[in-house]
User: What shape does this take?
Amino acid sequence: MEIPNAVKMLIWRACHDSLPTNQNLFKREIVESPLCTVCKTDPETVSHALWSCISVQDVWGSCSKRLRKVVVMEKSFKEILSYIFSVNEDEVADFAAIVYQFWRRRNSLVFEEKFLAPEIVVQLAHQAVLNYKEAV
Ligand SMILES: [Zn+2]
Assistant: This one.
């Protein structure tokens, strides 16, 4: 698989619901609210942060038709990932790169109060995939 290790690690953690989302941190009494840092309306679960939050919908909206369709299915992270693997393995790298950028964007909002525009997220993800393919 042509995916950088840091991205693989994030995907693995997302599949096992072990990302430090507000929901998970709230369960462990580390934060005071389970709500999403970005939209502040729904609990920040893995699937909320990575595809159902309104802040990521516009990014998915600008992706390939297939990825967009997959994301609309609203299944668990694991199910969506295995679905992408089953239809088109080539898109797994793109999907993973976008997910990775979403998580970075979410963290930069939490820790630095910075939030990138959707088109920048797509650009960064696309560039990361190209750079990695060139380097391998
Ligand atoms: Zn949200």
Summary: The pocket of zinc ion is lined by residues 36, 38-39, 42, 48, 53, 55 (CB under 6 Å).
